[in-house]
Amino acid sequence: MKFVIQRVSSAQVAVDGSVVGKISKGFLVLIGISCDDNVETADKMTKKMLGLRIFEDENGKTNLDLKTVDGQLLLISQFTLYADCKRGNRPSFTGAGNPRMAEELYQHIIATCKREISVVEQGIFGADMKVSLLNDGPFTIVLDSHEI
Question: What are the residue numbers of the active site?
């Protein structure tokens, strides 16, 4: 599982010209789910993401987590995080989880986050989405379940 976490001042996602998710200060998280992932992986990654202390405290140090700053979440499923570009110029996505399993894990991550964070917005799984954001920093972190 891979999470691309961007600290944002604002972000939104639109489908067919309509905004389906919008946040102010918080994290925009692109979520890639592989064929090897499961609920335990999702829980480990979600816990790590929610615990990241990447917001500034009163001394300007990145020392505060999302909940402490009353931050919001926008969660977007993105299978292309598992693009394999080793051969040729056309990526292969065989490492991405099958859609049914990936959507179940994506929904599990959303439900877990909603128990911790007051505002959790999301994209639409499998849809053609238009994502816009104002990256704060810029501050972007990539979490890979094989590395944590």
Answer: 78-80
